């Protein structure tokens, strides 16, 4: 990543370069910001994404107010050497509106599950009031396990006695509570995906 510093064309943008921020897990474009050389250096050094504010004329770290920081994963420079692609791991919604992205996009396919897992991890870390997920974590491991057991039974009941729609709904409930259990046990979503990959061989 550091090799990119020497190749960036800072002159073209009068010392600034656009930085596209991409969720390293879902592939969603989270936001667009601008960096000067110092912001890029601080990003590489701290492993947290920094920008230069064109209105406030100062450096700022994403999440310095909201606490929803962007953890640096990778930096790539485009072919014209005047735009950065920053892959990062968000610790919460990126947009100030509360949306996951500044473009109000929703993940698709596997990305939806990745985002859900990340949101549950965020709830575990911040424990916001009036959140059902917070309530689950506050009740502890035994209660979370009991909910997984309960939801498993409801999936079986839906499969054997109810409609396809009910089976889908109960399956989503089970996935959610299973994710809560995995987060409680400090298991990362990537570890689950790695095990799936192993079993495909």
* CATH-defined topology of the largest domain: Helix Hairpins
Distance between the termini: 32 Å
Q: How would a crystallographer describe the biggest sheet?
A: 4 strands, mixed
CATH architecture annotation of the largest domain: Orthogonal Bundle
Mean pLDDT: 91
Shape by Cα distribution: elongated
- Under the CATH scheme, which class of the largest domain? Mainly Alpha
Q: Order of SSEs, N→C?
A: EEHEEEEHHHHH
Strand order of the largest sheet: 2-1-6-5
* Tally of strands: 6
Total helical elements: 6
Could you tell me the strand content as a percent range?
15-25%
**C-alpha Rg, in Å?**
20 Å
Helix content: 40-55%
Summed up, the domain count is 2
CATH H-level superfamily of the largest domain: MazG-like
SS-based structural class?
alpha+beta
Q: Which stretches are poorly predicted, pLDDT < 50 over at least 5 residues? A: none
